[in-house]
Specification:
The protein is built from 10 helices and no strands. The protein is an all-alpha fold. It has a single domain, classed as Ferritin. Helix 2 runs antiparallel to helix 5.
């Protein structure tokens, strides 16, 4: 199956909402896996690898559910490896390059804090399948927040160099956080169906958690700014295409390969 033959993505709001959750975890898990063998210490190598495995496990559950909602007979693997970049609906933040160790941990904190509040709300949503997945993911995400927050505090309140580098990472990544709470028609449909939480309430909880960590880390919260990226609508930065070329290569070169 070539890239040009990938079927068009359904406009069904529930399917697209589940894919947004799945793709965000999948792409962030792929990014973190790039650290394997390259982290500054063995313990952190294992820590980042474990978070990557958690995220990919979440993505598998969500992609399996998305495949059922789509009803075209595609598997979780086909959704992961045989969609084009414009069909991925992940948050733009997670596709950003790793940068240095501190940069990666700032990105992880911003995303994990968001996922923690989101999964907490989804546990009691009107979709039993999604609620079940959220409950499982929440336990893992609580650790992701603790791990990333502890490192952001350690680096932010560390040496002059570590503070400056983490503050710069925060400045670079902060504009992408606007998308976390930019509701569109898909979000509106899911809120009306008592599935998705209200963005304003979610943002307040996320902001409070992030502000507490930044205060302890002696970091300055950047000002919010407009952004041109809408990854959850399929409009991505150039980084996603390069990542998918590597992630999907084997499946596209040898369709249906088993090992």
């Amino acid at each position: 199956m070539s890239a040009s033959l990938a079927p068009a993505l359904s406009e069904d709001p529930r399917l697209r909402y589940v894919l947004r959750l799945a793709d965000t975890s999948l792409i962030l898990g792929q990014r973190l896996s790039e650290w394997v063998g390259h982290a500054p210490a063995l313990e952190e190598d294992l820590g980042l690898a474990n978070i990557a495995l958690d995220l990919i496990g979440q993505a598998r559950l969500l992609l399996s559910y998305a495949a059922e909602l789509e009803g075209r007979g595609r598997s979780e693997d086909e959704l992961a490896f045989l969609r084009d970049a414009a069909q991925f609906l992940n948050l733009t933040l997670v596709e950003q390059p790793n940068g240095d160790f501190g940069h990666t941990l700032v990105r992880q904190l911003l995303v994990s804090a968001y996922q923690l509040e989101l999964y907490t709300a989804l546990q009691t949503c009107a979709d039993p399948r999604l609620a079940e997945i959220a409950a499982k993911a929440l336990k893992e995400t609580q650790y992701h927040v603790r791990y990333s927050a502890s490192w952001v505090v350690r680096l932010g309140d560390g040496t002059a160099e570590s503070h400056a580098r983490v503050q710069e990472a925060l400045m670079q990544l902060w504009p992408f956080t606007t998308e976390l709470f930019a509701d569109d028609g898909v979000d509106a449909a899911m809120i009306a169906a008592a599935i998705a939480p209200d963005a304003a309430a979610l943002r307040a909880l996320w902001s409070a958690r992030i502000d507490a960590v930044l205060a302890e880390a002696t970091l300055t919260r950047p000002a919010d700014a407009p952004f041109p990226w809408h990854g959850k609508r399929g409009v991505h930065t150039e980084h996603l295409g390069y990542m998918l070329a590597e992630m999907q290569f084997l499946q596209r070169a040898y369709p249906g390969a088993e090992w």
